[in-house]
Amino acid sequence: WSEDRFNEIIKETSTFIKKVGYNPKAVAFVPISGWHGDNMLEESANMTWYKGWTKETKSGVVKGKTLLDAIDAIEPP
């Protein structure tokens, strides 16, 4: 549950996302633990440093905290 590792992953992933033509600001980055279920459906107490995600969409800025929030915020093409 390392904030440094999460930020490293965001940086690496954002570079790739740009290369394939997407805007990283339109992507919700969510630190999760699939093993423990952290931040998947409910906010995790194990990642107190994580304040939530923000992404830009056609209809404005959307915010959330969990992977479920991010999935719910996906706009249809």
TrEMBL record:
Question: What's a Gene Ontology MF term here?
Answer: translation elongation factor activity
Alphabetized SUPFAM superfamilies for the sequence: P-loop containing nucleoside triphosphate hydrolases
Q: Which UniProt keywords apply?
A: Elongation factor, GTP-binding, Nucleotide-binding, Protein biosynthesis
Q: What is this protein called?
A: Translation elongation factor 1-alpha
**Organism annotation:** Neoboletus hainanensis
Q: Which gene encodes it?
A: tef1
